Structure formats: structure tokens, C-alpha cells
Q: What sequence folds into this?
């Protein structure tokens, strides 16, 4: 496995009362296939109803500008039919507390959640998970994007971008989600991602 990690922190507060925005960008080449990576992400609940909602949610969409879906995957069913499965956020109303409803396409798969792909015989060729959670006024937010695509020799390429604003101390952004992803990668023989990210971020202080 090869790995490239970049971290950055900006203090928009003061030394006595810091207000950090922390960003992490990671690129990795994995021996596991996208389907194997997806399976591990499901088993460790990185891919779950928490990151891919099934009911209306508040102040939670795919990206800051609204252009990205919660989830997208290219999947193949048992019969060899290929689908692009997408879960998008549809605005339902609100100003300070904004409600979004997840919308699945194609309609024929709207009752199927990605956590059941393996059980129902779907193979994942590539996938992405996008989460943006925010508070009123955008003073605090967290944004995470993970993309996994097929790589050379049956492996895969993984890209992670995470950013969190409004932190009073230097710590990994989107820490709970990065922890889940780290546990998923441990199943594939890649240990310590969360610890490495934490060390690099704290080293900026």
C-alpha cells in the first residue's frame, strides 16, 4: 500500500481562545478491490444509515455547495446488469434548521440500502460517500468525502478529504467517521490510520 497524507489547520480565533478549521487529505493505493473495501466499510458501519440516510434529516446534505450526493456507486447485480446507484439530498424546507429528504435513483432500487448490497448479490465496482453537517449560520460544520475506485492489479485507489470548522483544539476533523473508516481499513490489513492522522494534526500545534 502507498499512502500520501496532507494536513492543514487555520486558527480563526486567538491564542487564548482558538477557533480552528482543520483539513485532511489522504490518497492511498490498496490491494483490496473496491467491493472488498465497501464490504469492510459496511461491516464497520462507515457505510450505514448514519452516512447514507433513509429518512428526512436536518442540516445534513452531501456537500457544502449541495452538488454531491450522500452516496454514489456503480454496482452489478447477479444477472450482470450494471446500475449507477445514487442517494441525493432533496431540500424540503427550513432556514436555520434545514430539512433534506434522501432520494434514491434508479427508482427500481429505492428500497435498497447500500449496506445490503453484499447480502443481495450486488458487486460494487466503485463508490463514494459524501457528508456535510452544519449548524445555523455555518459557524461550525464538518465535511467528509471518500471515493474508492478500481486500481491496477485488481486493487483500488482511495481518496479522503475531511474538514471541520469551529474546533477549540487541534484534533482530527470528522473524528468519529474517520475512526469508523480506520477500523474498516484495519480489516484489510491497514492499521493505524486514525492514529497517524491524529499525530499529524496535533503536530501542527
A:
Amino acid at each position: 500500500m502507498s499512502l500520501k497524507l496532507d494536513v492543514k489547520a487555520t486558527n480563526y480565533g486567538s491564542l487564548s481562545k482558538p477557533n480552528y478549521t482543520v483539513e485532511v487529505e489522504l490518497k492511498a493505493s490498496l490491494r483490496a478491490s473496491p467491493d472488498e473495501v465497501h464490504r469492510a466499510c459496511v461491516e464497520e458501519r462507515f457505510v450505514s444509515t448514519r452516512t447514507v440516510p433513509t429518512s428526512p434529516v436536518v442540516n445534513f446534505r452531501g456537500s457544502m455547495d449541495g452538488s454531491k450526493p450522500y452516496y454514489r456507486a456503480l454496482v452489478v447485480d447477479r444477472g450482470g446488469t450494471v446500475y449507477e446507484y445514487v442517494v441525493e439530498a432533496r431540500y424540503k424546507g427550513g432556514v436555520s434548521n434545514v430539512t433534506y429528504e434522501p432520494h434514491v435513483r434508479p427508482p427500481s432500487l429505492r428500497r435498497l440500502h447500500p449496506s445490503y448490497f453484499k447480502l443481495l448479490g450486488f458487486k460494487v465496482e466503485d463508490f463514494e460517500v459524501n457528508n456535510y453537517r452544519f449548524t445555523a449560520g455555518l459557524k461550525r460544520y464538518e465535511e467528509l468525502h471518500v471515493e474508492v475506485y478500481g486500481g491496477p492489479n485488481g486493487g483500488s485507489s482511495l481518496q479522503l478529504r475531511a474538514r471541520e470548522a469551529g474546533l477549540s483544539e487541534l484534533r482530527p476533523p470528522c473524528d468519529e467517521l474517520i475512526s469508523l473508516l480506520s477500523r474498516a481499513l484495519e480489516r484489510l490489513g491497514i492499521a493505524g490510520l486514525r492514529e497517524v492522522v491524529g499525530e499529524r494534526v496535533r503536530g501542527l500545534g
About this structure: Residues 2-202 form one domain. The two ends are 29 Å apart (CA to CA).
